[in-house]
Amino acid sequence: MSHEILINVTPREVRVALLENGVLQEIHIERSLRQGVLGNIYKGKINRLLPGIQAAFVDIGLERSAFLHISDLRDYQNLASQSSDSPIDIRDVLQVGQELWVQVYKDPLGSKGARLTTLFTIPSRYLVLTPGIFEMTVSQKISDEAERQRLLDLTTPGEQGGYIFRTAAEGVDRAELMIDKEFLTALWTDISIRAEKAKAGDLIYTEIPIILRVLRDLAGHDIERILIDHAPSMQDMKNFSGTYAPAFAEKIEYYAEKRPIFDIYSVEDELQKALSRKVHLKSGGHLIFDQTEAMITIDVNTGSYLGHANLEQTIFKTNLEAVEVIARQVRLRNLGGIIIIDFIDMVDPNHKAHLIASLRAALAKDHVRVEVSELTSLGLVQMTRKRTRESLEHVLCVSCPLCQRRGSIKSYATVCYEIFRELKRVAENYQWPGFWIIAEKGTVNFLLEEESSMLADVEAQLGKPVKLQVEPSYTQEQYDILPLETKIF
After folding, report:
1. Pick from 99, 179, 225, 457: CA 20 to 30 A from residue 470's CA?
2. In terms of DSSP H, where are the helices of 381-451?
3. Would you say residue 306 has pLDDT above 80?
4. Residue 300: closest CA among 383, 283, 292
5. CA torsion sign, 361 to 363 to 368 to 369?
6. pLDDT computed for residue 304 by the predictor
7. What is the pTM assigned to this prediction?
């Protein structure tokens, strides 16, 4: 399977697209006006303790206070083992006004502030340093036991902490790992010095820019080419690669054509489709994605697909086709948290087992940790995907000013009946000679046509004239009722 990375750089935005066999699988976007803080280390100051949920709000210099739970403290496990008789109280561990180093492990999402931890992780190309935790572990993505053991035998914890072998470390020799280890040791020493001098709210360590994170986090052994359309950024990538990822230096190419780089593989079109609620399957079926505050739901439907065999085979084929599309869309849309999939109900237990196995296999390509449960008694599949950054929809879109994320707006009939009720309320409270109804054109037309008799009845009940005026700037749910003497322009 061929893999390519396309990078589009503009003064205000950098977009990185990961393609597999020419098909878009992941998109990463970083904007100068809304840069993420994931991985940054700050000198924080506790401004509030919440004993009820065993957490603290920490001021790290951002717009909103960040959230630190007691379980995200480095010494939590030791403290928990020492006080087995009663739960740990966060007030015995932290105090308001206390300063401490913290790292962001979840970007601010929606109205929620950033999530913090004192379990620091400092990544490089092949290793992740875990300061203060002297253990050696291997990424779960490396499944070969012999390779896992080989890596563990290559190095030991350092003076500052242990290490996690990243997926990219598979097959790497000891010399390259030692370069990474020395780099992380020097980096953590520098971070420690800066932290000692920092004041509350200061940024101590910041993650590298997205164009360099590509080489560290996305560029695996199977990447054949990295195309970037900005010459200075391309040179920065080559310099970084020469030091930390020499294998990719020759794979980085400058794209100098006039045609936009994202038009090569229809990336722009795929991005537009990824913002749609409905995703079509080749067979004629379709998926419906609904993203809420609590979870994401995915509904699988046969649509126009009728099949050629029996009903069970038709359903099974649709569900299997949906699995590949779901796995891709979850990555592309960067959906995180709880995800509920409502596959079409199947009877055959072998089909059910095959479906779950296929879903797990399809999701195994994801760089983010995903866990899939068995089918529930209601025929639903529950899965979780680690959420660290905002979804594609939240990055590119804002709430609809009409429906406010309800996904629907009031019908003309509903708005008209509200107007009639409001007219009666106004008439009881104000002695106006008559009434103006100011509304959107569709509402006014509905009042004059479908509800003309009702409008006449209300006018007769009030004993006062009611006139209508179109206001082009109003939305379907907006209207005003004014006294008749008001001059309407």
Report:
1. 457
2. 392-396, 412-429, 441-448
3. no
4. 283
5. negative
6. 66
7. 0.81
